[in-house]
Amino acid sequence: MISLKKPAAPRGSVPALRVRGAQTADLDQVVEIDAGITGLRKAEYWGEILRRYGGGRQQRFFLVADRGGRIEGYVVGDVRDWEFGSPPCGWVFGIAVRPEARLGGIATQLLEAICEGFRRLGVDKVRTLLARDNQLVLSFFRSQGMMAAPFIPLEKDLD
Ligand SMILES: CC(C)(COP(=O)(O)OP(=O)(O)OC[C@H]1O[C@@H](n2cnc3c(N)ncnc32)[C@H](O)[C@@H]1OP(=O)(O)O)[C@@H](O)C(=O)NCCC(=O)NCCS
């Protein structure tokens, strides 16, 4: 007799990674990943990001890389129309992966997923901004084909 039962996953096998929209239940892990990088636990900030960027909102993306319930990383960004005088384009303003899960292609998958969302909205360019001395994030974005843009950031202290 032929059995149609799916073979059980081998014991101890690693669950597949799934990139999906962030949910309320993910927030503690996102806060923990961010705090591991920045040293700041910003629970309120991430709650607000979920409120504004979660739930598949038009033009806004807050995605997580989920491996069997463990959040390994996240990406946040949006499509901005005619800001800084440029035609609509995608902006990535936060991307991070747990230190112990790095160099396994997770950030690459997160960036690809958000870029796919941008493409679906009809934009053909993605931008980001990073600290000049953040060599790690720079190496990552350069590996993804991103190059210096024709803009310069300006700032001043407000009295
Ligand atoms: C940058 C970061 C998101 C990359 O995540 P990741 O999952 O390790 O990235 P990937 O595995 O997809 O790496 C893709 C490519 O990026 C480059 N890269 C990533 N980490 C690198 C490192 N430590 N050194 C040099 N190049 C690196 C490599 O070219 C790599 O490709 P390869 O593995 O084939 O060489 C992760 O290191 C991180 O979270 N860093 C801290 C983020 C941070 O500082 N955020 C604050 C500002 S938003």
Q: Would you list the SSEs in sequence order as H and E?
A: EHHEEEHEH
| Residue share in helix | 25-40%
Q: Count the strands?
A: 5
Mean pLDDT across all amino acids: 93
Total domain units:
1
Q: Sum up the overall morphology in one term.
A: globular
Bound small-molecule species:
coenzyme A
Task: Please report which band the strand proportion falls in: under 5%, 5-15%, 15-25%, 25-35%, 35-45% or over 45%.
Answer: 15-25%
Strand count, sense and barrel status of the largest sheet are: 5 strands, mixed
- Uncertain segments are none
Q: What structural class is derived from the secondary structure elements? A: alpha+beta
CATH architecture heading:
3-Layer(aba) Sandwich
User: What is the CATH level 1 assignment?
Assistant: Alpha Beta
- What's the alpha carbon Rg, rounded to whole Å? 18 Å
Give a written overview of the molecule:
The structure is a single chain. The model has no long low-confidence stretch (mean pLDDT 93). This protein has one domain (17-143): 3-Layer(aba) Sandwich (Aminopeptidase). It has a five-stranded mixed β-sheet, sandwiched between helices. Helices cover 30% and strands 23% of the residues. The protein has helices at residues 27-38, 43-53, 106-120, 135-143; strands at 17-21, 60-67, 70-80, 89-97, 126-128. By secondary structure, the chain is an alpha+beta fold. Coenzyme A binds at residues 37, 94-97, 102-108, 134, 136-137, 139-140, 143.
